């Protein structure tokens, strides 16, 4: 049987599954600033509108325990 654990990581010479997680380095992206040409503004009449804000609920994904994930190879 191939378990999900076998699909990740490297196989040792002895056939033991060793899971190695490397820390991902975050790459910083530099944003280029574009210069905008100024346009003449036209005066507009302002109307005030009341807006109702709807709150969206975000569903949180449950993360597996970090400790367990880091030491997964101990369980094999």
What Rg do the Cα atoms give? 27 Å
Largest sheet: number of strands, sense, barrel closure: 2 strands, antiparallel
Structural class of the secondary elements?
Answer: little secondary structure
Measured distance between first and last alpha carbons:
14 Å
Q: Give the averaged pLDDT, no decimals.
A: 68
Strand proportion: 5-15%
- Shape, please? elongated
Query: Which strand order spans the largest sheet, edge to edge or round the barrel?
Result: 1-2
Stretches where pLDDT falls below 50 for ≥5 residues?
Answer: none
Binned, the helix content reads 10-25%
Task: Describe this structure as you would to a colleague.
The protein has helices at residues 4-7, 66-70, and strands spanning 10-11, 17-18. By secondary structure, the chain is largely without helices or strands. The protein has a two-stranded antiparallel ribbon with strand order 1-2.
A few lines on this structure:
The protein has 76 residues and is mostly loops.
Topology, please?
Layout: H1 4-7, E1 10-11, E2 17-18, H2 66-70
Antiparallel strand pairs: 1-2
Features:
single chain; 76 residues; little secondary structure
């Amino acid at each position: 049987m191939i378990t999900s654990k076998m699909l990740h990581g490297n196989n040792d010479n002895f056939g033991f599954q060793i899971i190695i997680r490397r820390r991902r380095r975050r790459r910083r992206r530099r944003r280029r600033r574009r210069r905008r040409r100024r346009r003449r503004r036209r005066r507009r009449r302002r109307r005030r509108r009341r807006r109702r804000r709807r709150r969206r609920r975000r569903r949180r994904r449950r993360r597996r325990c970090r400790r367990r994930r880091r030491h997964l190879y101990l369980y094999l």
